[in-house]
């Protein structure tokens, strides 16, 4: 690591010294090159008995994976196989909600929660959950309201990929994006990759109940069905790791996510391999909704699959603290992935250290 970025390294290690982090990795690309590649803590177990975190350790990054799912569908848009402003039903005839592809991608389709209560085992039943969404009535007219499609996003996007291409979104990602750009990330992990996963743990035992909010609230409905999505016993199981829940169960390394954003920041090309046109990247990162989000309960600028910040950066954070994005103004991409489920203040401090040296 270049000496210029020492403050970032020091900040990263301070999180562990203070007990605010127990297992994580951080990768930063600047000016088209990786300049920070850090890992620390443990992957499994407790105390000092756990296996150390390695550069190839995969971890569930929650919503930081939503842009990755979106890019699978956006690749089909770029190839002329899907029209952003066509109704979803053109590609998925059973789908009742009169939403467009663009509205699905920008969290304004009106389907922020699965309509039928399902147990944790349902995460492995793609047809069941996709069928629930196809038959659902929207909670408000599509396009009128933004509400993060917290658990539903991946099935809405992924079923369109499957209908148009024939492959599941996990297989499409592996073959068309991750494989070609050499990204260590995926949906629906094989057994060998599951053995590389870090076990999620709570930074605070009250974390799940705080995140769900009031029982019966829109947030609780959006994030609590199927059951188990905030329960580490489910999250660390072969059921979850092997399933495709693309809204929330991308398993990734920080290096994989930082590389992905580096390719997007370069206009869709990485190491000479072009996957996206510059025009598609520009459209995908343009603001589609600017206003309140009813699930997140705050103002959000939604693009086609990402959040855009006031400083012009675009990407996505996950509920447990993982986060990845590109900052075109400053010329860097950033990815932090963690097994320690807590708040985003860790990322805020790392970014402050990074900005201080750029």
Summarize this structure briefly.
The chain has 358 residues and is of the alpha+beta class.
Overall description:
The chain has 14 helices and 15 strands. Helix 1 runs antiparallel to helix 14. The chain is globular and about 55 Å long. The two termini are 15 Å apart. The longest helix has 13 residues. The strands form four sheets. Strands 2-1-14-13-12-11-10-9 form an eight-stranded antiparallel sheet, sandwiched between helices. The chain has a three-stranded antiparallel sheet with strand order 3-6-4. The chain is an alpha+beta fold. The model has no long low-confidence stretch (mean pLDDT 96). Helix content is 34%, strand content 16%. Strand 10 and strand 11 form a beta hairpin.
Key features of this structure:
358 residues; alpha+beta; 8-stranded antiparallel beta sheet; 3-stranded antiparallel beta sheet; 14 helices; 34% helix; 16% strand; globular
Q: Rg from C-alpha positions?
A: 19 Å
- Strand tally, please? 15
Morphology call? globular
Strand content: 15-25%
Secondary structure layout plus pairing:
Blueprint: H1 6-17, E1 23-30, E2 33-41, E3 59-60, H2 66-78, H3 101-105, H4 126-135, H5 153-165, H6 169-181, E4 185-186, H7 191-194, E5 201-202, H8 207-212, H9 218-223, H10 232-235, H11 238-242, E6 251-252, H12 254-265, E7 269-270, E8 273-274, H13 278-284, E9 289-293, E10 298-302, E11 307-308, E12 314-317, E13 323-327, E14 332-338, E15 340-341, H14 345-357
Parallel strand pairs: 5-15
Antiparallel strand pairs: 1-2, 1-14, 3-6, 4-6, 7-8, 9-10, 10-11, 11-12, 12-13, 13-14
Helix pairs in contact: 1-14, 2-5
């Amino acid at each position: 690591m270049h000496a210029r970025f020492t403050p970032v390294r020091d900040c990263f290690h301070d999180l562990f010294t203070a007990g605010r982090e127990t297992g994580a990795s951080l990768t930063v690309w600047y000016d088209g090159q990786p300049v920070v590649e850090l890992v620390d803590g443990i992957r499994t177990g407790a105390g000092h008995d756990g296996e150390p975190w390695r550069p190839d350790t995969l971890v569930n990054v929650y919503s930081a994976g939503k842009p990755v799912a979106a890019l699978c569908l956006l690749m089909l848009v770029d190839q002329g196989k899907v029209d952003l402003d066509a109704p979803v039903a053109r590609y998925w005839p059973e789908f009742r909600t009169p939403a467009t592809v663009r509205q699905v991608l920008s969290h304004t389709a009106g389907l922020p929660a699965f309509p039928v209560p399902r147990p944790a085992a349902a995460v492995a039943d793609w047809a069941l959950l996709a069928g629930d969404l196809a038959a659902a009535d929207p909670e408000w007219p599509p396009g009128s309201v933004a509400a993060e499609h917290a658990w539903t996003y991946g099935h809405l996007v992924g079923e369109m990929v499957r209908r148009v291409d024939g492959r599941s979104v996990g297989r499409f990602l592996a073959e068309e994006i991750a494989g070609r750009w050499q990204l260590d990330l995926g949906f629906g992990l094989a057994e060998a990759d599951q053995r590389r996963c870090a076990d999620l743990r709570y930074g605070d035992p009250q974390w799940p109940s705080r995140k769900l909010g009031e029982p019966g609230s829109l947030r609780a409905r959006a994030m609590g069905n199927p059951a188990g999505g905030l329960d580490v016993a489910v999250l660390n199981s072969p059921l979850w790791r092997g399933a495709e829940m693309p809204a929330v169960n991308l398993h990734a390394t920080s290096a994989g996510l930082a590389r992905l954003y580096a390719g997007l920041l370069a206009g869709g090309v990485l190491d000479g391999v072009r996957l996206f046109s510059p025009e598609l990247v520009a459209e995908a990162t343009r603001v589609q909704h600017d206003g309140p989000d009813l699930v997140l309960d705050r103002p959000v600028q939604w693009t086609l699959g990402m959040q855009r910040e006031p400083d012009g950066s675009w990407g996505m954070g996950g509920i447990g603290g993982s986060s990845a994005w590109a900052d075109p103004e400053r010329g860097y991409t950033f990815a932090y992935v963690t097994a320690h489920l807590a708040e985003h203040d860790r990322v805020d401090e790392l970014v402050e250290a990074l900005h201080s040296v750029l």
